[in-house]
Design a protein that fits this description.
The complex is a heterodimer of chains A (267) and B (290). Chain A has 267 residues and is mainly α. Chain A is built from 13 helices and no strands. In chain A, helix 5 packs antiparallel against helix 10 and helix 9 runs parallel beside helix 13. Chain A is elongated. Chain A starts with a helix and ends in a 7-residue tail after the last helix. Chain B has two domains: 215 residues, Rossmann fold (3-Layer(aba) Sandwich); 67 residues, Alpha-Beta Plaits. Helix content of chain B is 32%, strand content 30%. Chain B contains ten helices and 14 strands. In chain B, the strands form three sheets. Chain B has a six-stranded mixed beta sheet, with helices on both faces. In chain B, strands 2-1-4-5 form a four-stranded antiparallel beta sheet, with helices on one face. The longest helix of chain B is centred in the middle third of the chain and has 16 residues. The two termini of chain B are 34 Å apart. The chains are: A mainly alpha (267), B alpha/beta (290). At the A-B interface, helix 7 of A face helix 2 of B.
């Protein structure tokens, strides 16, 4: 428990910052909704003028932005980018930080197994991400209730959209962890996490624009694309399975690699 | 039962050799010196014993248990002081030591206080405000607070002033008297000679020699340099002199034997200056372990 506690303490500030930022982001986005929905007709006209490619890139194609759920897809996309950065930040750092800051010698010469260190760190990061997840749910619920302007919405589709966040976070956490174990050294966590999260987003946007479906199988932005979810009303089962497989494989691989890793000395 | 036992322990970093065929056997209660120049493989050996790195081949046991399978159990009774100490910068010394203690059974707060007092370490300071020497003190307290049965020191004295070094050596000797075994790696022959019972000499990844410290002391070579106007090195070619060299007015050589013979020889001949010093480890290696 001591490693878990220390990890949580270490992440407290960053978790708070992320949670509050995302909370504020959703509130801010949704606060514009009343204006949007009032002028739904004008809005539709405006949207029709935008090139279809752009709408696809921002995940706005095929949904009615005048409806609560339709408008929310846009909010969720930006939220997802934030969630991705946070989760990959943790993924890239939790195992590599001790080596980068040269505290690995200290931690690994204590009487603990590497497995225990691995799980303590993983669960601490997951706890932190869950706190942010809860903030995201809370903010979503609150903002809808405040700003929906009397419009009805289908709670089921919201739950479906929000339920994907945990997998989304685990994807970036797991992939970040396994990459950090595959490279010799993670010099700058931010470079890695930005590349991964924006890279995945761009892949998804690019895939949508050129209509290439196979690209979608490697990016979670595609697995859980909110507008597709609204149109179909169901998850894409294949993509869901692909996502879960990637999560499991990356976590198992990082566990094995961490247990075998040579920790080199500072000099 | 042997405290540490390695058989043909070998570690390659890719194609680069770390250590090869290192076989050591250390008894309970020993202070075992492990000496060699920088890059000889001392740290590699210690990191293997602590399972920070894994071997290419060979075995290692501590307290009779396999280092790589039961590392976490073994480490309950190991205190390790690395050559360079790094801790969580944001923590205070007290927090770091408390965190360290939380890995071991029992209450160690009294011992922390005791050790900090001896080493004159301020527990309330922040780690990143500490000087190198003070960080080293944190390392010492951290390494000894759980009363380990095996103390592993990897060039522990760098950064400590002579007074602190002495206090540190006294601490180690005290622990040793209480029954702790000490594995002491260093590249300074003098401190190893002062402390250890037995010593292994490692060079380029191989153990060159494992010897009793007494034997090593009898091999007590001195490095002598004489400045004189009599340009005659032959005068000093007596028994026990080797590697004699003359550059202008300076004659230098190694001497092994009764120092009085040499001193009277020097007095007989008019010299301007004499330097008698311990040969560096590198010089010993160069001349005697070719």
């Amino acid at each position: 428990m001591n490693i878990y506690k220390r990890e949580i303490k270490d992440k407290l500030k960053s978790t708070a910052v992320w949670s509050i930022s995302i909370f504020a982001l959703i509130m801010l986005f949704m606060s514009i909704f009343p204006v949007f929905s009032k002028d739904a007709a004008t809005l539709k006209l405006m949207m029709d003028n935008y090139p279809e490619e752009m709408l696809k890139a921002f995940g706005m194609s095929g949904v009615d932005l005048g409806s609560v759920a339709g408008y929310f897809t846009m909010t969720l996309l930006f939220t997802q980018i934030c969630l991705a950065i946070q989760a990959s930040n943790y993924g890239f750092s939790i195992l590599s930080v001790e080596e980068r800051e040269l505290t690995a010698d200290f931690l690994l010469t204590r009487p603990v197994t590497r497995s225990k260190i691995f799980f303590s760190k993983f669960f601490a990061a997951f706890t932190a991400l869950t706190i942010t997840n809860v903030a995201t749910w809370g903010s979503t619920y609150l903002s809808i209730e405040i700003f929906r302007n009397g419009k009805d919405y289908d709670i089921d589709i919201f739950i479906k959209m929000m339920a994907t966040i945990v997998l989304f976070q685990l994807f970036f956490l797991g992939v970040g962890m396994v990459i950090s174990m595959l490279v010799k050294k993670v010099k700058s966590v931010l470079t890695f996490s930005m590349s991964l999260s924006f890279g995945m987003y761009i892949l998804s946007a690019f895939g949508s624009i050129i209509g290439e479906d196979t690209l979608g199988y490697i990016t979670p932005f595609k697995y859980f694309e909110p507008n597709t979810l609204i149109i179909n009303g169901e998850y894409d089962r294949t993509m869901l399975i692909v996502c879960i497989i990637i999560i499991i494989v990356s976590l198992v691989a990082s566990y094995i690699l961490y247990n075998r890793r040579n920790i080199h000395s500072a000099n | 039962m042997k405290i540490i036992e390695t058989t043909n322990l070998t570690k390659f970093y890719g194609k680069n050799k770390g250590i090869e065929d290192v076989s050591l056997s250390i008894n309970k209660g020993e202070i075992f010196g492990f000496i060699g120049p920088n890059g000889a493989g001392k740290s590699t050996t210690i990191r293997l014993l602590l399972s920070l790195i894994y071997p290419t081949s060979g075995q290692a046991t501590i307290f009779g248990k396999d280092c790589f399978k039961y590392g976490h159990e073994i480490r309950n009774d190991i205190g390790y002081l690395p050559s360079e100490v790094f801790y969580y910068d944001k923590m205070r010394v007290k927090e770091l030591l408390k965190y360290s203690a939380s890995f071991y059974k029992g209450d160690h707060s009294k011992r922390i206080k005791e050790l900090a007092d001896i080493m004159e370490l301020d527990l309330s300071r922040k780690i990143d405000e500490l000087s190198y020497g003070n960080k080293k003190k944190v390392g010492i307290v951290q390494g000894l607070l759980h009363q380990p049965k095996l103390i592993m020191l990897d060039e522990p004295t760098s950064g400590l002033d002579p007074l602190m070094q002495q206090k540190f050596f006294n601490l180690i000797l005290e622990e040793n008297k209480k029954g702790a075994t000490v594995f002491f790696s260093s590249h300074i022959l003098g401190e190893v000679q002062k402390l250890c019972n037995r010593v292994a000499i490692i060079r380029e990844g191989h153990i060159v020699k494992i010897e009793d410290i007494k034997t090593l002391r009898n091999d007590n070579y001195k490095k002598i340099a004489i400045r004189t106007n009599n340009h005659n090195q032959k005068v000093f070619k007596i028994d026990g002199v080797s590697n004699i060299e003359q550059i202008d007015g300076e004659i230098s050589f190694f001497f092994k034997g009764d120092i009085n013979t040499l001193l009277s020889l020097i007095t007989k001949n008019k010299v301007n200056d004499v330097i008698i010093e311990e040969p560096t480890l590198e010089e010993i290696f160069m001349h005697y372990y070719k």
